[in-house]
Amino acid sequence: MKPSIPKGTRDFGPLEMSRRNYIFDTIREVFRIYGFAPIETPAMETLQTLMGKYGEEGDKLLFKVLNSGDFCRDIDPAMAAEGDYARLGARICEKGLRYDLTVPFARFVVMHRDQLQMPFKRYQMQPVWRADRPQKGRYREFYQCDADIVGSDSLVNEIELLQMADEVFARLGIRVAIKLNNRKVLAGIAEIIGEPDKLIDITVAIDKIDKIGLEKVEEELAERGLSADAIERLRPMLAISGSLDQRLARLAELLAPSETGTLGVAELREVVDTTARLGLRAELDLDVSLARGLNYYTGTIIEVKALDVAIGSISGGGRYDNLTGVFGMPGLSGVGISFGADRIYDVLTALDLFPAEALRGVDVMFVNFGAAEAAASMAMLKEMRAAGISADIYPDAAKMKKQMTRANALGARYTAIVGESELAEGKVTLKEMATGEQTLCTIAEAINRIKA
Fold first, then answer.
1. What is the DSSP code string of 384-420?
2. pTM for this one?
3. CATH 3.40.50.2300 fits domain 361-451
């Protein structure tokens, strides 16, 4: 039987990992200069922590972990016979793999609140798991790179996150559009069309406009119980056109009867205007249909899409004033953004944007001519590594062709040769792989040459 891995997961070889580390290092450095501190949380959380935080559809995508040992020992067989799988699952599974990094972070804040200085800015770069249908750009296991600020309800934080996202994608060389909306705007829309109790149904449906189109969204809204009149009144809200300023003004007019909706437009206006004054390389846009399908957002909603590759969002986030309340810590406001490293990888690959340094192998590989030569080479190898040079040695005294094949496979910029004559002189012959040029030099000269 051939070995395999689960659908929606992947292995990563040295080349892929070099590229992935370039992405992680770029994002991590931007997080650092914006004042975020790193944390990590466990891969597993209790289902009590996870369930009910992502909406009905999100809960279905949680990977549940069977209890250890005889997990069926105290289970009534009638549960399975009667098809009571929800209750059965709750009895045999107490843990689940994390769906995102935001809910675990909220749990972390509540558990460690006495040790945290508010406002607290954290970043977290770890894998998450979703029992989704694998497709292009969508995986069951993938990394998220999150940055969140809790303990402040100031819109300065949203503006900072937009600046930070702009910096990340500028450094990566990806042209992006940043789309904005506000959960209060969505609540105002639900109020204006006479369906305030169906906010979740409305947001889940309209969030799919880009995927299935307005007509299908309206069919889904009807299936979810919205009246024909409500759907008719919703249509102009989703069809606002013009410049960003014109659309904000039109939205303000449409939502004027709603206090909540008016507040949402005001928050959007402040974020947009301040960000524009500071300057942004990315395109900034308003998308009234943007909901991101997550119930915990209460204010600004952010989504980033690549302009030159057809793929889903590569970053997104928003404000979640009430999230820590479900863990016993009400009144703590938070806002965050998440970068999808796997989709960013796909975009960089499609556009051939990985720089040469992201693909660099070892700087130098020592050729092995035998025990005496290898011993001398290893002494030089130690000096090179101490100088910060990536260096390796072929472990066996194999044929030269075999050793040079490995040097090429490692992406070595140089090969270092310590043969009989070099051994006698205490020197090394440095061969530049790209040109074939060879230079006999001392180890100090070799180090300077490689570093130069």
1. HHHTT--EEE-SS---HHHHHHHHHHHT-SEEEE--H
2. 0.84
3. no
